[in-house]
Design brief:
By secondary structure, the chain is mainly β. It is 9% helix and 60% strand. The strands form 2 sheets. Strands 1-2-3-5-6-7-8-10-11-14-15-16 form a 12-stranded antiparallel barrel. A 3-stranded antiparallel β-sheet has the order 9-12-13, with no helix packed on it.
């Protein structure tokens, strides 16, 4: 029973860490009344490390994720703001050795829906059309923005309390977020911090209750723009916390993860663009996981 509880906690923690999402240009100034729709694919490969006493060895994960996202910019309380809606679908296989014998588990279904609302609190006045273009030209050499956001992850993903491994989390995750971005010519420097707050899962495996401490995540990006619509970025992130309790028993399983990423984006036209990224995560503990993720995406603007 203890082994099973530990395994499911590792798998749930893995899903949360992948969702740390190193995302450059998230605080960019966009014109009002803009719509952006995107579709992306992510391939994930991970090695999961467990205590030898659990008799689970060589545990690996291969995950395919297809996700769609919609963004709408607007003015809120006199500030440039945006609303985002994201939804994914995953197909993944876990395989390894259980007591020396090959074992595997396959899961397929929708992920939890993610909502995000953000506002630029300093800089980036709410503009559109020629006024927006003139403002961006006037601040291109030196511009600083400060923003805040609230992200809510809904418990809409595929979930069953009778399964040790699930795609959905069966709980709400609330993430307040703050960010600062500074542009100097063709270079942009971004940094942000967020706190993940988890509600309780009262229908954890076999009717148990899962509680989790807050998880803190930090990320920074350096972005270089070769020309309008063509950019590259290098990113680094760090996450810590998220210790679990199962039925009131502390599992002593706090996460500590280092993440890094390289990405590039290109706009073929004013309305159509593409992005490719590599994201790696490396655990700083001896009972967690390492992962490699390759993502490609397409977006349309109108």
């Amino acid at each position: 029973m203890k082994s099973a509880f530990f395994l499911i906690v590792v798998f749930c923690s893995f899903s949360a860490a992948i969702a740390q999402e190193l995302t450059p240009r998230r605080w960019s100034h966009l014109p009002l009344d803009t719509n952006i729709a995107g579709i992306g694919y992510v391939y994930t490969q991970a090695d999961i490390f467990l205590d030898p006493v659990l008799q689970v060895e060589d545990l690996e994960l291969e995950m395919n994720t297809v996700a769609v996202r919609y963004i709408r910019t607007l003015e809120f309380l006199g500030k440039s703001s945006r609303f985002e809606l994201g939804q994914g679908f995953q197909d993944g296989t876990y395989k390894g050795l259980l007591q020396g014998e090959p074992a595997r588990a396959h899961r397929q279904g929708p992920t939890d829906t993610v909502l995000r609302f953000s506002s630029i609190l300093y800089g980036a006045p709410p503009l559109k059309g020629k006024e927006y273009q003139q403002h961006r030209q006037s601040v291109a050499a030196n511009d600083t923005l400060i923003g805040a956001a609230l992200i809510v992850q809904l418990p809409t993903g595929d979930y069953s309390e009778n399964q040790l491994i699930n795609i959905g989390s069966n709980r709400f995750t609330i993430r307040p977020q703050v960010g600062v971005t500074h542009q100097r010519g063709k270079w942009i420097y971004e940094t942000s911090a967020s706190m993940w707050y988890f509600t309780d899962n009262d229908d954890f495996w076999n009717g148990s209750e899962r509680q989790q401490d807050p998880f803190w995540a930090f990320q920074s990006h350096v972005i270089y723009t070769f020309k309008p619509g063509f950019w590259t970025s290098a990113s680094i992130g760090y996450g810590i916390g998220g210790q679990n309790e199962i039925n009131g028993i502390n599992k002593d399983d706090a996460n500590e993860n280092l993440a890094y990423s390289l990405a590039a984006g290109y706009s073929f036209t004013r309305q159509f663009g593409a992005k490719i990224a590599y994201i790696g995560t490396r655990t700083q503990t001896d009972k967690s996981f390492d992962s490699d993720n390759v993502a490609v995406g397409l977006s349309w603007v109108w």
